[in-house]
Amino acid sequence: MLVDGFEQRLDVAGPDAPDTDLGPTQRPLRDFPEPPPVAEHGPARVVAMCNQKGGVGKTTTTINLGAALADYGRRVLLVDFDPQGALSVGLGIDAHDLELSIYNLVMERGIRVDDVLQETPVKGMDLLPSNIDLSAAEIQLVSEVAREQALSRALYPLLEAYDVVLVDCQPSLGMLTVNALTASDGVIVPLECEYFALRGVALLQETIEKVRDRLNPRLQIEGLLATMYDSRTVHGREVLARLVEAFGDKVFHTVIARTVRFPETTVAGLPITSFAPDSPGAAAYRQLAREVLARWPVARSRS
Ligand SMILES: Nc1ncnc2c1ncn2[C@@H]1O[C@H](COP(=O)(O)OP(=O)(O)OP(=O)(O)O)[C@@H](O)[C@H]1O
Ligand SMILES: [Mg+2]
After folding, report:
1. Is the dihedral of CA 131, 135, 140, 145 positive or negative?
2. Pairing with 127, which of 9, 97, 156, 287 sits 20 to 30 Å away (CA)?
3. Which of 20, 56, 60, 287 to mutate to test the pocket of ligand 1 (most atoms within 8 A of CB)?
4. Residue 94 and residue 79 in contact, taking contact as beta carbons nearer than 8 Å
5. pLDDT in tens for each of the 303 residues of the chain?
6. Which residues 6+ apart lie within 8 Å of 118 measured at CB?
7. Ligand 1 contacts CB of residue 62 (under 6 A)
8. Per-domain boundaries in the chain
């Protein structure tokens, strides 16, 4: 019963087509309005992609939501804030070969942002890449003055040039993630649709609240995104039902289904919206982009 109720409320974008592992789902795409074009750019809304649990779709969502927003004419900056550098690799950048990365921009003075910024294969979407150098920042920041604001300071001069900045966090709640939250207006929390998905969410919420109280009153939870959803299993549907029960409207209507196309895109170094634009996965992230834009306040001035 419960599950049936949620079946009606949640729309799985991109019902699985033959190119996926799954059978078809019955749900139609929900219509979020086509976002109006923007005549001017900036100031950017900064959004952290955050969950201390590993492998839940943070990086996949950063790349593909970013690309979908860029396809809707938004100027997008992606920030790889994970020393693993998966976001950079996922956009075809050889992380070992980087002369300068987000580490230098955040930790050193006098670095020119243009020397760190990289274009991506997606028009209108740039990247501040990272690599393993960033792992040193976690320790070095501890003894810095205003250590939680290091990323915020580095991003500030860039905000006028972009509409959206998406920060891909590492799977921990350490100093790098606190920096990402301090620099952000909103947080998107990707959650894998499996039984232990909700474990740790309370701790994440607590961290977000602490950052809001002490460092960044702008910060709000933008939404929870169910990822890797398998509509064939009762298990997957139950987890979704529990999510909505616990978080109500904070759960995005858009749900990202599990499909092998996502791992394939990483190998290709492209977002799914470029690699397989007609796939259900690409449609899902385009829908998420429309849903996110519909949720955002129209006036984005950073007063
Ligand atoms: N909807 C999906 N269906 C199938 N596989 C997916 C989906 N989303 C992501 N993946 C795959 O799952 C793995 C983990 O995803 P991703 O790297 O985006 O998670 P993450 O939260 O950034 O991980 P980490 O915490 O390690 O940074 C990757 O191999 C990715 O290709
Ligand atoms: Mg990641």
Report:
1. positive
2. 287
3. 60
4. no
5. 333 334 434 445 544 433 333 333 333 456 898 999 999 999 999 999 999 999 999 999 999 999 999 999 999 999 999 999 999 999 999 888 899 999 999 999 999 999 999 999 999 999 999 999 999 999 999 999 999 999 999 999 999 999 999 999 999 999 999 999 999 999 999 999 988 888 889 999 999 999 999 999 999 999 999 999 998 888 888 999 989 999 999 999 999 999 999 989 888 899 999 999 999 999 999 999 999 999 987 655 444
6. 88, 91, 93, 126, 127, 128, 129
7. no
8. 2-295
Pick the CATH number of 2-295 from 3.40.47.10, 2.30.30.100, 3.40.50.300, 3.40.50.150: 3.40.50.300
Q: Is 177's C-beta closer than 6 angstroms to any atom of ligand 1?
A: no
Quote the distance between the C-alpha of residue 162 and its chain's center: 16
Spatial CA neighbour of 106 closest among 83, 90, 124, 86: 83
Residue 145: Cβ-neighbour burial (10 angstroms; 0-12, 13-18, 19+): exposed
Structure tokens at 63: 């790349």
